[in-house]
Amino acid sequence: MKKFCFLTLIMLICLTGCGKAAKPETLKMAVFDRSKVSNQLIEEYEKRTGIPIEIVEYERYSDEVIDGIDLLKRDIVSGKGPDIIDFGWVFTMTDVLGKYTEDLYEYLGREDLNLLDNVVGAFELEGELPVIPTGFDIVSMIGDKKFFGERNTVTMQELMEIYEANKDDGVMLYVGQFKIEVMAELLVHNLGNFIDWDTGICSFDSEEFKDVLQFANMFSAEYEYPDGISIRKTYLNEKAMLAPLGVSNVYDIAYVDYVYPDYKGKIIGYPTDKTSGSIIEPGYVNLAIPKTTKKKEQAWDFIQFSLEYDSQKLVSEDYLPLNKDVIKERIEEYKKPHYDDSGEMIAVRQLGYEEDGHTPVYVIDEKQGNELWELVNSVDSFGGIDWKIYQIIFEEVQPYFEGAKDLDVVCDIIQKRVSVYVQERKG
Predict the structure, then answer these.
(1) pLDDT per residue over 341-380, tens digit each?
(2) Residues 183, 150: contact at Cβ < 8 Å?
(3) Which of the listed residues 12, 222, 241, 353 has the most CB atoms within 10 Å of its CB?
């Protein structure tokens, strides 16, 4: 009996004293633009592992002299930094300039997570993977085949020529066109065409950039849609060459055939000389591991968890998942009608414009499913809007649009200001 009591005592000591040593260590996570998705992933991870996650929120833009990204870098250098970073849905490549995060390819290569390699590759920087999304959106343009034929992409020069050839027939570029809006539509997701993120070299003084501004300057300063004219009918009557497209869920692909029915429309993307003009935008959660953390493996465990099948199903409610199997399943799921408890078919999407009413979408068809699958496997250019860069462009282009400054002068100023900003971020 005494022997038993002695052994019991030893076990109790281990369960208390030793147990303290074995207690899971907290992971410290820096979070920008905290979202429902990040909260769900953190909650599920804590449930599965028992590892608590301490969240430190950073404000991306503020009235302070130092913004959130710079503050994060300062905390990392001082040793007060996090173990893992969620850059949030406003992530842009300038966030990770300076090589202060781990190359996630070193970790990703050990796993078989069945991810879309083309999407992952769009987040590369200097041959490394400084950050990885848990999901993504796609922004693009739908082209009317009447004007663009069967082409898959269009260059800026081709777009200008096609518009010039058709504008006198009352054809719009797209509904809602005016100077600043056209510039924004062609640039805001497409700034990567004018910045080499690997080197930091910008090309805002290039002929291609000047073409964008010259083209935008062809339009009126303000746009007023004529009274009594239907946006829907404008597209149906093929009086608008392009329509913006955003795909964040499987059923968004139905918008292509809504705008241009009877197979008259085709996704051609933004002007580019690449193989795909469609652009990847980051989802709500974009994860990185700072090089200074001593908990790299634990941080990777959270990232791996976020990329696994069950987690990808969870986040696919809000944006396109990175996992191929989950996207395939979603496509098949939305090919079939959904019903409520009373047996009524459920509309998964409402398409349309306020003045024209809305058209319910109940399913996607085989053609739309194939179109989406082709799109998610072909898109390979990252957007990520850096609002500071866009603000520089917006400020400097106004005098050109007003006729007060020469185009070359304006582009030289933009080139210098953006180049300085990018180089400062590179450190």
Answers:
(1) 998 999 988 888 776 778 899 999 999 999 999 999 999 9
(2) no
(3) 241
Q: What is the 3-state secondary structure (H, E, C) of 159-213?
A: HHHHHHHHHHHCCECCCCCCHHHHHHHHHCCCHHHHEECCCCEECCCCHHHHHHH
Conformational region of residue 207, where left means phi above 0, alpha means psi within -120 to 50, and beta covers everything else? alpha
Please tell me whether residue 333 adopts helix, strand or coil conformation.
helix
Nearest to 261 by CA among 242, 236, 238, 283: 236
Q: Quick one: average pLDDT of 367-395?
A: 93
Two tokens, residue 268 = 């051609």
Among 160, 246, 258, 241, CA closest to 208: 160
Total residue length of the chain: 427
CA dist 56 and 85 (Å) reads 10
Is there a contact between 353 and 243 (Cβ–Cβ < 8 Å)?
A: no
For residue range 129-167, what is the model confidence (pLDDT) as tens digits?
A: 999 999 999 999 999 999 999 999 999 999 999 999 999
Positive/negative CA dihedral, 181, 185, 188, 190: negative
What does DSSP assign to residue 127?
A: T
What confidence score (pLDDT) does residue 349 get?
84
Q: Which residue has the tokens 């970790």?
A: 107
Q: Count the helices and strands in the chain (H runs, E runs).
A: 18, 15
Task: Note the pLDDT of residue 83.
Answer: 98
Neighbours of 72 (CB within 10 A): 23
Residue 66 binned pLDDT confidence (cut-offs 50, 70, 90): confident
Q: What is the DSSP letter of 355?
A: G
The average pLDDT across 196-205 equals 94
Query: Cα(first)–Cα(last) distance of the chain, in Å?
Result: 69
The mean pLDDT value for 274-299 works out to 95
What is the C-alpha to C-alpha distance for residues 252 and 319, in angstroms, rounded to an integer?
11
**Hey, what's the torsion of the CAs at 230, 231, 236, 238, to 10 degrees?**
110
Q: Exposed, middle or buried, 248 (CB in 10 Å: 0-12/13-18/19+)?
A: middle
In angstroms, the Cα distances linking 371 to 27, 329, 331, 344 are 41, 15, 10, 28
Q: Within its chain, how far is the Cα of 163 from the centroid?
A: 28
